[in-house]
Amino acid sequence: NDTAEDAVLKASSLGLTHVHTAYDYYNLQGVGRGVLKAGDRGEIFVTAMTSPCIHPAAPPQRNVTDPEACYNLTKKELYEALESLGLEYVDLFLLHGPSEPFGYEGGCDEVVCALNQAQWRAYQDFLRSNLTRAIGVSNYCQSCLSCMMSDPSTVVNPMVNQIQWHVGMGPDPEGLMSYCEEKHVVVQAYSPLAGGEVVSDKLCASVGLKYNKTAAEVGLRWVVQQPIGPPALVVKSDSVKYLEQDLGVFDWALSKTDMDTLNHATEPKGQQDGHPSWGCRR
C-alpha cells in the first residue's frame, strides 16, 4: 500500500492522470490515499477491478457457481473496493475476467455465461447508483462478450475490454480487436511490454534506433498507433525515467513500414502463450 501511494503521487506529479488497481492487487488503500493526496479528484481517472466468481488461481480464491450468490458477492465486493479506496466514486470498474479457471482454453459455456451475466447485473446496478461512471470487463473473449450482451437484462454493454496485447501478437489476435470495434467496446491493452520481454526484443530495439527510442518505447507506440479503436493501454512503473518515457508515447509516430514489420512479428509471446485472455480463447 505504501509503494502504491508513492507511485500514484510520483505519476501524477509528472502529468499521468490514469490510475489502475484491482481487488486482488491488494493495494486499494494505498492507491486511494495517493489519489486523494494528488490534488483535484476530478483530474485523475481511477480504474478498479473485482474478481470473477470462479477464481482458483489467487486470493480471493472461490468457486461460486450459483448465479444469485455470484451476483450478491460481486455487489458486495464493488462496495468493499470503493470503501477500501476511500473514494466517493470510481471512474471505471472492470470485471477482472470471466468465471473460468486460469488458463482455460475453451469458450463461454452455459454455466460460465450465467455467472458472467449475474456479475454484469451487479455492475449495471452499481452504475445506476452513480458510484462508478463507466463499466467494462477484462480478459473477455468473443463468446463471453456475446453471452453478456445477449442477456435481456443487459441495458449497458461493456464499455471497455482490457486484454493482453503487445508486439508479437499481431494487430488483431483471435479477431478480438475487430470484434470489439464492431461492438463499440474500447480495447485497453495490459502487459503491452509482454511482461518485460519487449524491453529486450531485438526487432523493437532495431526499430527504435531509427527514432532514438528504446525497445520499450517502440512497443508502447505500436499499441497506441493501431487503427482499431484507437486502443488505450496500462503500464506499470514507479521509476520517473520510465514514467516520463510512457508519457512521451504520444509525441512521435512509427512509419507505416515499421508498423507493418512489427505487425508481422510472432515474438515475444508474453503471458498466456500470446493469447489476449487468461480465461477463455474464443
Automatic annotation (TrEMBL):
Keywords: NADP, Oxidoreductase. Residues 263-282 are annotated as: Disordered. It comes from the Eukaryota. Residues 2-264 form the NADP-dependent oxidoreductase domain. The keyword Transmembrane helix does not apply. It holds the Pfam family Aldo_ket_red. GO terms for molecular function: oxidoreductase activity, acting on the CH-OH group of donors, NAD or NADP as acceptor. The keyword NADP applies. Belongs to the aldo/keto reductase family. It comes from Lotharella globosa. Residues 263-272 have a biased composition (Basic and acidic residues). InterPro entries: AKR (IPR020471), NAD(P)_OxRdtase_dom_sf (IPR036812), NADP_OxRdtase_dom (IPR023210). This is NADP-dependent oxidoreductase domain-containing protein.
